[in-house]
Design brief:
Shape: globular
Structural class: alpha/beta
Number of domains: 2
Strand content: 15-25%
Order of helices and strands: EHEHEHEHEHEHEHEHEHEH
CATH superfamily of the largest domain: Response regulator
Oligomer: single chain
Number of helices: 10
Number of strands: 10
Radius of gyration: 20 Å
CATH architecture of the largest domain: 3-Layer(aba) Sandwich
Helix content: 40-55%
Strand order of the largest sheet: 2-1-3-4-5
CATH class of the largest domain: Alpha Beta
Length: 268
């Protein structure tokens, strides 16, 4: 990803970590990439004081699961209870830990188990801080499915609109040309996902809008039909949060690359 320190000038980031090695590495890396001075909290008391000392909202927290004074995960619970978006940076990852973290609606989790851990953390931070520029449309006739996808995307800081039908989706797209990604169910009563995609592709190309189809069907040929209708990707429910977020990122990255290339050609 491309980084620009200027765009993060007003971000307030808290780092709850007691390791001198990692606080030094992370602080230096984020300063180099984003020109952000991270607030370091080496124990639970520091974290509480950091929150209490300023009325400025915390944009994002990076937290170890266990801190001095909070050896049983109290620091993470504290951040979650305050509704502070949090990326977990931990070397502890026992069986069942992943499900517990996802249940807390953390933004992401990064393992301290390889030399690229700090770079992976920096990428996750950058995505969170820039995801608000992306407007995503969710199309599904199921209120539960819409709410679930909307919650997932808002957790990652995306702007989200929803439609309960294909007809409503067409209205929203017409009124909001900044939408860059649509995630649509296949099985809908008025206009199914295939027909919706065909109609959209009559006027909006993949260089303007990426389309991901989703379905609970066991028919794996649906993906081929959807792609041939003009879709860019397809996922079968139930899907894993990490895979879903990865596929969303890949499609948006591709969109930005295509748009950048078109601009370069226009200038040339």
């Amino acid at each position: 990803m491309q980084y620009s320190g200027g765009m993060f000038a007003h971000a307030r980031i808290i780092l709850a970590e007691d390791s001198n090695v990692f606080t030094s590495m992370i602080g230096k890396r984020l300063k180099e990439l984003f020109d952000i001075d991270v607030e370091i909290c080496r124990n639970f008391e520091d974290l509480q004081l950091s929150y209490d000392k300023s009325t400025d909202p915390i944009t994002l927290a990076i937290s170890n699961i266990n801190l001095p004074g909070a050896e049983n995960g109290e620091a993470l619970e504290y951040l979650v209870d305050l509704s502070i978006p949090t990326i977990v940076f931990t070397g502890t990852f026992q069986e069942g830990m992943r499900d517990k973290l996802m249940a807390k609606d953390v933004v992401d989790y990064i393992l301290k188990d390889n030399v690229f851990a700090v770079d992976l953390l920096a990428e996750s931070i950058c995505r969170f801080l820039t995801n608000h520029r992306h407007h995503v449309l969710i199309v599904d006739d199921s209120p539960t499915a819409r709410a679930l996808l909307s919650s997932r995307l808002k957790r990652y800081n995306f702007r989200v609109s929803t439609a309960d039908s294909g007809a409503k989706a067409l209205e929203i797209l017409k009124a909001n040309r900044d939408i860059g990604l649509m995630i649509t169910d296949y099985n809908m009563p008025d206009i199914d996902g295939f027909e919706l995609t065909r109609r959209i592709r009559a006027s909006i190309g993949s260089h303007e809008l990426r389309i991901i189809g989703v379905s609970s069907s066991s028919n794996r040929l649906l993906s081929a039909r959807f792609l041939k209708a003009g879709g860019n990707d397809f996922m079968l429910r139930p899907f894993i949060d990490e895979e879903f977020y990865c596929r969303v990122n890949q499609n948006l990255d591709t969109l930005l690359q295509i748009q950048s290339m078109r601009k370069e050609r226009a200038v040339a």
